[in-house]
């Protein structure tokens, strides 16, 4: 059995918008993209549901999950900066007690 074709998101959006605009039928879009009509129908349904959810929530900003991920990125970035600074301090401290390292020549 052949592996299904992976269609990029941008292509899915273009296909769904052309179907919604009435430029092509679901069958024609599926044939052109070499996928099943069911796939195009699923993409259309998912596209419309996501739009409905966005309108219902009334939010134009990032989702709750996106906000959580952004906060986590900020925390990790800060922790990395602190760890880097601490490593530099330890290195300087060790060089002061032991003299310059042989690898730093």
From TrEMBL:
<feature type="domain" description="Insertion element IS150 protein InsJ-like helix-turn-helix">
    <location>
        <begin position="11"/>
        <end position="62"/>
    </location>
</feature>
<dbReference type="InterPro" id="IPR010921">
    <property type="entry name" value="Trp_repressor/repl_initiator"/>
</dbReference>
<dbReference type="Pfam" id="PF13518">
    <property type="entry name" value="HTH_28"/>
</dbReference>
<protein>
    <submittedName>
        <fullName>Helix-turn-helix domain-containing protein</fullName>
    </submittedName>
</protein>
<dbReference type="InterPro" id="IPR055247">
    <property type="entry name" value="InsJ-like_HTH"/>
</dbReference>
<dbReference type="InterPro" id="IPR036388">
    <property type="entry name" value="WH-like_DNA-bd_sf"/>
</dbReference>
């Amino acid at each position: 059995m052949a592996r299904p074709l992976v269609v990029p998101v941008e292509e899915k959006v273009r296909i769904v918008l052309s179907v919604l605009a009435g430029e092509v039928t679901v069958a024609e879009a599926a044939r052109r993209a070499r996928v099943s009509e069911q796939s195009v129908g699923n993409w259309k349904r998912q596209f419309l549901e996501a739009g409905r959810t966005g309108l219902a929530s009334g939010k134009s900003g990032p989702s709750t999950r996106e906000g959580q991920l952004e906060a986590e990125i900020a925390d990790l970035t800060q922790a990395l900066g602190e760890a880097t600074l601490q490593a530099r301090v330890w290195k300087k401290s060790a060089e002061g007690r032991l003299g310059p390292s042989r690898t730093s020549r």
